[in-house]
Amino acid sequence: MSTLLRRVAILxxxxxAALLLTAVSHAATLPQDGSSEKVLFDAANHSRVALxxxxxxxxxxxxxxxxxxxxxxxxxxKLSHQFPGELPLEQxxxxxxxxxxxIAENVAEGPTVLGLHWQWMNSPPHRANLLDRELNxxxxxxxxxxxxxxxxxxxxxxxxxxGLEAQEREVSAQLAARGVHVLxxxxxxxxxxxxxxxxxxxxxxxxxxxxxxxxxxxxxxxERQVQAGRYRNAAVxxxxxxxxxxxxxxxxxxxxx
Length: 257
Description:
The protein contains nine helices and eight strands.
């Protein structure tokens, strides 16, 4: 195996380990067997798998957000996706610790747990959420109020929780696979990442900045510039993306030399 291929393989292995740790963290608090949440979780995945869709993964942060909202519905004896004075869904989920590029919610009220699932499956917009291929994670909460059960399912396209170094390793691996040598120090690129224009350090031939919810590939316009073959070296820097909407995005700067 060439040195380049070994380097790409090592970087990919490190990223995979980070993703696995994230998955374990999100699934740390699974619904208990026999609980209403477990019944709805299993029912959702049974309906998805029966149609050839991938099963949803349990997300404890989404479950916490769903529980807070479901308790409000039970207290007010009313179905709603947002009550007066309550944050919108994406911000509730973000505050609970969820990271996502897409989010959706089902709410329902009824006398039985499985009846809640079939309410959703027989309602086109709720069914669409349950069977959305882009959504891969869910948190569910059920709260009883008198003879009624209130429930919420919060779905998301989950985004891994990656630190700046892990983000830089992923992008560096993509550049290395395309024959671009990645320089060891990310400091100038990190400083550049925080800037709206210009660069830090030695003047590069080109500065590429982008934000994305998915680090598994570079945006098409960035890919075209890298593939042009005019650059031999690069520095990669990550920084915090702006915005408080709750939707997760990664901000990257690539200095090409």
